[in-house]
Amino acid sequence: MLLAIDCGNTNTVFSIWDGAEFVCTIRTSTHHSRTADAYFTWYSTLINHYGIKAEITDVVVSSTVPRVVWNLRVFADRFFGCRPLVVGKPDCLLPVAPRVDVGAVAGPDRLANAVAAFNRHGGDSMVVDFGTATNIDVVAHDGAYIGGVIAPGVNLSLEALHQGAAALPHVDVTQPDKVIGTNTVGCIQSGIFWGYVGLVQGLVQRVKDEYGLPMKVIGTGGLAPLFEQGDQLYDVIDHDLTMHGLVDIYDYNKEQGNL
């Protein structure tokens, strides 16, 4: 079986792919100091808890935190006897090369999103990914990643507001009953929720206008369903888009004899 690992700035997700579907998905907070042994202790404990019988033969990794890649490499080699395919490294092939500025490096999660978006939903599309940052990834007609937008993430904005304004409390992200808040918590929730609805709507429309062709909008990330409640922001929500992209990239490299 294939173990797909997506390491973001806040959380790291491990998903086991059996060739047809993900049979188990578990997550942990991202720490650059976590050792390979610590990863395995956490991983094996949860796998045993859920009663998953999975013989891992291959590993694919996407990481926006470069310092964790070494320990994930050791983790794969020591406990599964394989060398992981790391998306974004020169030896990892992509179905279509990204078309960005010379010298620019696209994040591996954004490359995975582009591959999965094209394979699952077609080209001329954009992915709105709610993570630590709120990203928009633009996918051309042939599946190439051609750029996008990076905005501060929802929880990052809440944390900055809480830390920067001593009198303002930390609140949960939720859709408020009304736009005009009548207490501090309600005011913050309205500003964050409806502010991000407006941000996404505005950016999506500007991307469409600049792209000049009809585009499908794909929502993903943990907060995508929450913001769908506020307005029709996307054409489809694909919860496991990034993980499917990792599987697609792994399969492509295998087909090309690169593994």
Question: How is this fold's topology laid out?
Answer:
Blueprint: E1 2-7, E2 11-17, E3 22-29, H1 36-50, E4 58-63, H2 66-80, E5 85-86, H3 108-121, E6 125-130, E7 133-139, E8 145-152, H4 154-164, H5 184-211, E9 216-221, H6 224-228, E10 236-237, H7 241-255
Parallel strand pairs: 1-4, 4-5, 6-9, 9-10
Antiparallel strand pairs: 1-2, 2-3, 6-7, 7-8
Helix pairs in contact: 1-2, 3-7
Task: Write out the strand line-up for the largest beta sheet, numbering strands in chain order.
Answer: 3-2-1-4-5
Helicity level:
25-40%
Q: Could you tell me the radius of gyration in angstroms?
A: 19 Å
What distance lies between the first and last C-alpha atoms, to the nearest angstrom?
15 Å
Count every helix, treating DSSP H or I runs of 4 or more residues as helices: 7
Mean pLDDT: 92
Major sheet details: 5 strands, mixed
Helix/strand structural class: alpha/beta
Uncertain residue ranges: none
Order of helices and strands: EEEHEHEHEEEHHEHEH
Our estimate of the beta-strand percent is 15-25%
- The global form is globular
Q: What's the total count of β strands?
A: 10
